[in-house]
Design brief:
8-stranded mixed sheet, alpha/beta, 20% strand, binds S-adenosylmethionine, 9 helices
């Protein structure tokens, strides 16, 4: 039965106007049709664009869209079954400032144009602990170079994770590369929430699916915010 429901969700997703599932051909054989056109074609406004990478069910993308109607949000993940949840909820609520892109994050620089994106959220990524997996880490040099292709000059990257390893790794990468660090805490919920600016307080109050699970298990939640300077 679960398999059948999954197929129904996949079929339903194809009818959603705010879900994009480009084929490899569409992304690589030609410039993807939405490159440089996300604001104009999808959102029909000039507002900033914020991505959530590895969005899962999209709690952050949808939660931020509710709180910030003057920004556009795009949840990105390869797993359609999870993405369906956020896509369905946002449609039911009539949110017009959130969309979903089903693709591998490895292909992301073929989906957005130069300076098209203002901010990136990375929420509870797989830490990819083994040495040889560094190239798969979403805050590693390979991915950071992809983000540079489309992130604005003063663009911001946010990371929320329960992994000590991934937090330390990301903080170190930011320091090594001289990226200005705007916020860092290895125990978010022990901090005085009033110490963050109002927008950050609002955003940090949203919990993702995995965050709920990790928090219940007593894991500390780490948060890092840095600016990705272009050369
Ligand atoms: C641990 S889950 C976190 C999901 C969600 N952010 C949360 O906090 O509940 C990691 C997510 O990243 C997605 N993911 C991992 N690597 C990916 C990749 N290379 N391209 C696209 N999605 C990826 C997985 O499909 C999964 O949904």
């Amino acid at each position: 039965m679960a398999g059948k429901r999954k197929l129904e969700h996949f079929a339903e997703m194809r009818t959603f106007p705010h879900v994009f599932e480009p084929t490899l051909e569409e992304v690589f054989r030609q410039p993807y049709k939405l490159i440089g056109n996300w604001r104009k074609t999808v959102f029909k406004n000039d507002n900033p664009i914020v991505l959530e990478l590895g969005c899962g069910k999209g709690e952050y993308a949808v939660g931020m869209a509710r709180k910030f109607p003057n920004k556009n949000f795009i949840g990105i993940d390869i797993k359609g079954a999870r993405m369906w949840r956020g896509a369905k909820t946002s449609l039911e609520e009539g949110l017009t400032n959130v969309a979903f892109l089903r693709t591998r994050i490895e292909f992301i620089d073929s989906c957005f144009g130069a300076d098209e994106v203002d901010e990136i959220w990375i929420t509870f990524p797989d830490p990819q602990k083994k040495d040889r997996r560094e190239k798969k880490r979403l805050t590693g040099p390979l991915f950071i170079n992809r983000y540079r292709q489309f992130l604005k000059r003063e663009g911001i990257v946010h990371l929320k994770t329960d992994s000590d390893f991934f937090y330390e790794y990301s903080l170190n990468e930011a320091k090594l590369n001289g990226y200005p660090i705007l916020e860092q805490t290895n125990n978010l919920y022990a901090e005085k929430i009033e110490d963050f600016d109002i927008d950050t307080q609002e955003i940090l109050s949203i919990k993702t699916h995995y965050e709920g699970i990790f928090t219940e298990k007593g894991h500390k939640i780490h948060y890092l915010k840095f600016r990705l300077h272009h050369d």
